[in-house]
Amino acid sequence: MVLDADGVFADVIHNAHNGALFFKDPETLLGADLWDIFSTAQADQFHATIEDVLETGEQQHIEYQLSLDHGERYFEARVTPVGGDNAGRVLWLAEDITQRKRRERKQALIERVFEVSPVGIVVVERSGRISLANERAEELLGLEREELTQRRYNQPEWNIYYEDGTPIPNSEHPVTQVLDSGEPIFGFEHWIELVDGSERWLSSNAAPILSDDGTVERVVVGLDDATGLKQREEQLEWLVGTETLADVGGWELDLETDMIEGTTGMQRLYGTPDYNPTLEEAIEQYHPDDRAAVRDAIKTCCETGEPMELEARRQTAAETERWFRLRAEKTVRNGTPKLRGIVRDITQDKEREQRLMVMSRILRHNIRNKLTVIRGNSRLLKEALTSSEPPVDTAMGHIDRIESASKELDSLAERARTFDRVIERDLRGGTVHLQQVFNDVRDDLTEQHPRVTIKVAPTDAEISGDRMAIDLILEIVLENALEYSDQSDPTIKLTAEESPLGQATVSIDTDGAAIPDMERNVLTSEIEGPVAHSRGLGLWAVMWLVRRLGGSVTMDEDHDDGTRVELVFPQARSE
């Protein structure tokens, strides 16, 4: 376009290829001035440029933006004086630079994103040299940008390691893998030792920049600080480990949906692959005598906000009964009222309390009785020996009774020591072949009691547990059967059957044995009080040991005119 000193369009030079560059029909521009076409401010700007060019006689470059019907366009103009010193005209050469402007803006945005990215970004050349790094990369790697760009990615000074402290070899470095394969690498976790001696966990994502022929020209590495995440993972592992060691599980009850969500600790405690029951489903798993207390405690906590705490018995997935202590408090999360609490397995604590109580009462009871016998016979023996003519037979009777009571005390003490040694062992470790146990028990008892007949049915059953504990259980049950048998030549039969539920049932059948109610109640109601003293530790030990092994014990006195005791144990796990 040719314009004169007043900003009037004197000529328009165009062809079929550049017609689109014009914002008006070229023919309509002739004779019009800048103010006819543009806004006053823009026309004034253009006219000032023309005046400067005519005054100085020098070409000027300007950029401007026009709002056209088909959108915003950017132009670059070279304004040059034409026609000699006194012509008073300029040649206005306009070029549409919209695409270039857009590329420049995009490039500027990319550069800004590169710099302000919350992820550290490093660009590695094919040669291995680091050519670019952003500010976040400087922070994460502990080096100034000039120091970074003077290094190669695989220099030993980086000190990068796997989690176990093993140095990462060059062949396994994510950049090396991308350069070799041309495929991106995501989530490569490692830690580095910084120049100040501190350690930092990083998660690296590396991707290739490919040339036209598909070869890798550069590798872009994104670095994210994973130190906090690793610390949280370690803390979570610690918490999970603590849950396991403490026999603790966590749970949360949504008071709007009545759904419970449990931690892995709850799954482990209750023996289920997951734990997401409704409130009522969870309560139904507790002992019938404890359900009302659990339900009332939860209701009170919900209504008053006071923390709850109680102890209750619950059936696990393995159908064993365990004691649990429940604690919870009311809270609000994301606007939803919830009950959040923990459950701890206190079965061993309860058993320990019960053992102390029972052993104290039984031992005190039996020791007192035996000492009474010893004291009484000692007094009578003394009287007999001080008489003028000591009756030998009478004295020997007193001595026999003293000796018998002493032996019984010694036997009771030994049984208590044996039980203590067994109960403190890890009872669930190992595999026990029942056929071998049956044979050994039969051989031992028939040697001690020649009149007894013990029949052992062949079995391939294997159970999970401690051999010493299982030996003691069978020994006690068989001795009780013999003690209370009314047969002169009693017969005992040992059998074992495996079930599809992963359990093995050991049946001990005796003919004519009738265990007294006081002893039988130990297995049915676990009663032990000042009035209901069982004679010894035997069946208490059986009940405690079987439960510790994850099994159960029942008794049927109406079985084929005899008594059957059934011991249920978990089967040994196959490899």
Automatic annotation (TrEMBL):
Reactions it catalyzes: ATP + protein L-histidine = ADP + protein N-phospho-L-histidine
TM helices/strands, residue ranges: none
The protein's Enzyme Commission number: 2.7.13.3
Domain PAS: 106-151
Pfam families the record matches: HATPase_c (PF02518), PAS (PF00989), PAS_3 (PF08447), PAS_4 (PF08448)
GO molecular function list: phosphorelay response regulator activity; protein histidine kinase activity; protein kinase activator activity
GO biological process, one term: regulation of DNA-templated transcription
Alphabetized SUPFAM superfamilies for the sequence: ATPase domain of HSP90 chaperone/DNA topoisomerase II/histidine kinase (SSF55874), PYP-like sensor domain (PAS domain) (SSF55785)
Gene3D superfamilies the record matches: Histidine kinase-like ATPase, C-terminal domain, PAS domain
SMART domains, per the entry: HATPase_c, PAC, PAS
UniProt KW keywords: Kinase, Membrane, Transferase
NCBIfam families assigned to the protein according to its UniProt record, in alphabetical order: sensory_box (TIGR00229)
Cellular component, GO annotation: membrane
Source species of the chain: Haloarcula vallismortis ATCC 29715
Enzyme class, first EC level, given as a word: transferase
Domain of life of the native organism: Archaea
Domain Histidine kinase: 362-573
Domain PAC positions: 186-238
Signal peptide (from-to): none
Entries under PROSITE patterns matching the protein: HIS_KIN, PAC, PAS
Protein name: histidine kinase
